[in-house]
Amino acid sequence: MFVAEGDVRDWLRLSGRESGFVDEDVERLLGYRAGEDVSSSVELALTAKLLQYREFPFGSDSVEVSGDLLSRHLLVVGQSGSGKTTLLRNLMGEVEKPFWAFDLKQDYRHLSRDVLVLPWNELKFNPLRPPEGVSPMRWAQVFSEVFCHATALLSGSKNYVLKQVVRLYKLYNLFDGVSEPFPSLFELEMLLSEESVRGRKQSGYRDTVLNRLGTFNVVGSSVFDCSAGYGVEELLDRDVVFEFEGINRDLQNFVMEVLFAGVYEYRLAQNQRGEGLNHVFFLDEGKQVFSVYKERQDASGLPEVDRLVAKMREFGEGLVVADQEASKLTESIKANTYTKFLLPTAGGKQFGAVAESMDLDERQRSYARDLKIGEAVLQVGSSNPVPVEIQGFDTGRPVSDEELRRQQHEKWEELDSRPQRVTDRFDQYIRGDTEPEEHTDQDTGISGDAEQLLEDIVEDPFRSLTDRYSEFSSSYKGNQAKSELVDTGFVVERKIRPEPVRRKLLQLTDQGRNHAEEELDIDVKRNGRGGVVHRFWQNHIKDWFEETGWSASLEEDDADVAVDMSGVRLAVEVAMEDSPREIRHIKDRLDSGFNTVWVTCRSSEIQSGIQERMLENDLPKNSVAFRLFRRFCNKENGSTSMENSVFET
Q: Cα(76)–Cα(342) distance, rounded to whole angstroms?
């Protein structure tokens, strides 16, 4: 084999030799004269060595996307035709655990010989049937959350749906025992149609919900006409492709979100916690479910499906999400995906959204802008990103509906479903043979003790449960009132951990806030932002500074806590998780005129993660300090140490 003189010059240029860089191995390999016969192994070694030292903005670490990484979720962003679907097919072929793929464009039916493929018209599914072990009251809350999120309805409609589902479950005697028959969406539509409503607001809720529900039942007439369809329990151990091509977007979103929620609630009810990966969801066109526009709807609150993403990992549920437009994905999904693939993207806005979530520096961004089809930049956690190639996937020829039926017919026949049925009680009610129950007050009202506790939560959201129980004749009665509020979905429990402020708090849900405002005529105000734990620390840190003699306020110039320290302006940011947005908060606070930013963290792991992100960004380290929450639990850390510690990093 002969080495041409031009090749040697190119190697010299690529190695950086022309700019003065010298490497002994390169020198030795380049010792061969141009035109001299050399072995191919020498050429390969030379090429590898030179490529290693050319201008390359990434590390040389090898990265493996293992099953354990999938349990921490994965995000793929790239334009149409960039290789997203191919990458997802490859991951499906390599994952060793069962998976469910939500297929909106018939992209995965080529896998049909190895997996169960369920086209829309072959699916039997009853979203009103609670998963095994899940109480009817709990599932009624989940159903109402998912239905209204998928159809872009707000809290008033959500509360209305919840009340009607509870009514329906009572007519099916499900609160006496969870067994068949279960009501379907058709019975829910019938119940709403027969209801006599009072007032324009209630009538508006009913008409709006009926409009969405009626459309679902028309399009899904062959899918929802069952008492028990293919259950979560039956399919979790199988590789399944759900085909949703050809149905409207709201219905696609609804079914996908119910399946997400059903798996989570089933795992939770069965207490199937554990380490490692148990099951994976694949979702292309992720913005349909994880829409930033729905996330920004203040009136509807954080979507339930976004909350699920953060909680699914504990039960070994992995999530792989792909989309063309990163800017339209929720901040939650970008923050809660540990592994990210950036493929060629269309437009600076989409590129910038995912590059920011990966914290790519300018050289890496410049490289990534020139990615070709089949190329990607991969980042795992906060490690250095690496460029990778996506191997092609041979899909073979297209699979027609007829061929799919031949391949899948026996699998479809094995699936179990039971036909739609009504109870005598429901039938008599619809026919008017019995008087309607006085369900409204019973279903929407709560006991006097629960009302007392709800009012106390509104008045003082940061009071511990122990203190709240002291207002009752016994702690048992207080606990009963708390359980009633939890069961009705009005509050959720949250924990504050560091001593000496360790306590349990009760956080109002949307239903609880609406009930307090509409039924109890209480004005619900939020002192701070975020969840109750975040707001607790905002207020606690503000009080801590005031007790040490400084002037502090909430939300001034967008800081969680703004402190005036004799002319030095300090911004305190409360960090509940290791997220790229904490870096944005630091930048914004410094840009808005604060001299110093304190990042207060829930744990040392979160602190270390944000510190790593700081090192990857051009931020003035002398103006940023980190503190753990427990620092503010000791009042002896007072003003004597403040001036000396404020500029620590």
A: 6
Residues of the chain with pLDDT under 50: 1-23, 26, 32-38, 49-50, 53-54, 298-299, 435-444, 636-649
SS3 of residue 314 by DSSP: helix
Token pair in block for residue 611: 């510190």
Residue pair 125/111 in contact by the 8 Å Cβ criterion? no
Taking phi first (over 0 means left), then psi (-120 to 50 degrees means alpha), and beta for anything else, what does residue 102 get? beta
φ and ψ at residue 98, rounded to 5 degrees: -60, 150
Residue-wise DSSP of 97-161: S-EEEEESSS-SGGGTTTSEEE-GGG----TTSPPTT--HHHHHHHHHHHHHHHTT--HHHHHHH
Q: 3-class DSSP state for residue 570? A: strand
Task: Say which DSSP state 329 is in.
Answer: B
Q: What is the pLDDT of residue 283?
A: 92
Tell me the two tokens of residue 648: 């620590």
pLDDT value, residue 61: 61
Contact between 553 and 542 (Cβ < 8 Å): yes
206, 159 in Cβ contact below 8 A? no
181: preceding bond cis by omega (within 30 degrees): yes
* 249-269 vs 200-219: helix crossing angle, rounded to 10: 90
The CA distance from 376 to 76, in Å, is 9
pLDDT digits (tens, 9 = 90+) for 446-502: 888 888 999 999 888 888 888 888 888 888 888 889 888 988 888 888 888 766 778
Which pLDDT value is given to residue 436? 44
* Token pair of 345 as six digits: 């993207």
Position 272: which residue type?
Answer: Q
Sheet holding 116-118, edge to edge: 116-118, 240-243, 99-103, 279-283, 317-323, 74-77, 339-342, 375-380, 386-389
Q: What are the respective helix, strand and coil percentages of the chain, to the nearest 5?
A: 50, 15, 35
Tokens, residue 116: 């169960």
633 Cβ neighbours under 8 A, 6+ residues apart: 498, 499, 500, 501
User: What region does 17 belong to: left with phi over 0, alpha with psi -120 to 50, or beta?
Assistant: alpha
Amino acid at site 228: A
Measured in whole angstroms, how far is the alpha carbon of residue 318 from the centre of its chain?
11
The three-class DSSP label of residue 209 is helix
> For the chain, how far is it from start to end, CA to CA, in angstroms?
58
Q: Helix or strand or coil: residue 310?
A: helix
Q: Which of these, 45, 52, 42, lies nearest to 2 by C-alpha position?
A: 42
Say how far apart CA 190 and CA 192 lie, in whole Å.
Answer: 5
Record the tokens describing residue 509, joined without a space: 């849900």
Cα(643)–Cα(637) distance, integer angstroms: 12
Which residues partner with 495 through β-bridges?
504
Spatial contact of 39 and 51, defined as CB atoms under 8 Å apart: no
Neighbours of 180 (CB within 10 A): 11
Q: What are the beta bridge partners of residue 115?
A: none
Residue 222, SS3? helix
Closest CA to 302 of 509, 476, 468: 509
> Mapping DSSP to helix (H, G, I), strand (E, B) and coil, where does residue 646 land?
coil
The domains located in the chain, with CATH, are 5-53 (no CATH), 115-276 (no CATH), 445-518 (1.10.10.10), 535-645 (3.40.91.50)
pLDDT in tens, 372-414: 888 888 888 878 888 888 887 666 678 888 888 888 888 898 8
Q: Which residues contact 420 (CB under 8 A, 6 or more apart)?
A: 181, 184, 186, 225, 226, 227
